[in-house]
Amino acid sequence: MHNIRPLPQYLVGRFHGWRATSYSENSAWYRRLATDGQRPRAMVISCCDSRVHVTSIFGADSGEFFIHRNIANLVPPYAPDGLQHGTSAAVEYAVTALKVAHLIVVGHTSCGGVAGCHAMCSGRAPELEEKTSFVGRWMDVLRPGYDRVKDLPEDQQVAALEREAVLVSIENLMTFPFVKQAVESGQMSIHGLVHDISEGTLVQAVEGGRNWVEV
């Protein structure tokens, strides 16, 4: 493993600053988390995009959120095929082991993954159609959403598809038997949000996703 290098110094400095302030001032809480384990109230599925910072948006502390991030905050359909499914594994653990009370899908504006999906589905990104494209095959999850927005005026399609990324994920979540059971029994609720990076706002899906209102 000769390609492993020491951490960049700017990150080392930030770590020592955190250790001397946030950790030092809350060390009893961190030790309790280590001893008692995590009991997050919510799972958040959000995009890998570095501009999406859900712990800052909600003012969350360590131990509050079980967070899974992937390209375009997507959840694939339930597929118990014996293969490796990172997002599905995270959902399974959150719902069946941690028993979170809320499952929140957070999309965002200016999403590169969604824009790539739109370009691919409209025939403008042949490189994403290649079987070797990990991004393209992942964005296939969102094709049903593209089908629902493709007849809108072209300048509205990408923004609509960003919301579809949330709605398609929620629809797919309900194909997981343990998610469906938790929701229908009232043990867990599902929420869909879109964060506007420029304006700092959040809108939430209501009425089954037919409408969106500001939080």
Automatic annotation (TrEMBL):
<protein>
    <recommendedName>
        <fullName>Carbonic anhydrase</fullName>
        <ecNumber>4.2.1.1</ecNumber>
    </recommendedName>
</protein>
<dbReference type="Pfam" id="PF00484">
    <property type="entry name" value="Pro_CA"/>
</dbReference>
<keyword id="KW-0862">Zinc</keyword>
<keyword id="KW-0479">Metal-binding</keyword>
<comment type="similarity">
    <text>Belongs to the beta-class carbonic anhydrase family.</text>
</comment>
<dbReference type="InterPro" id="IPR036874">
    <property type="entry name" value="Carbonic_anhydrase_sf"/>
</dbReference>
<dbReference type="InterPro" id="IPR015892">
    <property type="entry name" value="Carbonic_anhydrase_CS"/>
</dbReference>
<keyword id="KW-0456">Lyase</keyword>
<comment type="function">
    <text>Reversible hydration of carbon dioxide.</text>
</comment>
<dbReference type="InterPro" id="IPR045066">
    <property type="entry name" value="Beta_CA_cladeB"/>
</dbReference>
<dbReference type="InterPro" id="IPR001765">
    <property type="entry name" value="Carbonic_anhydrase"/>
</dbReference>
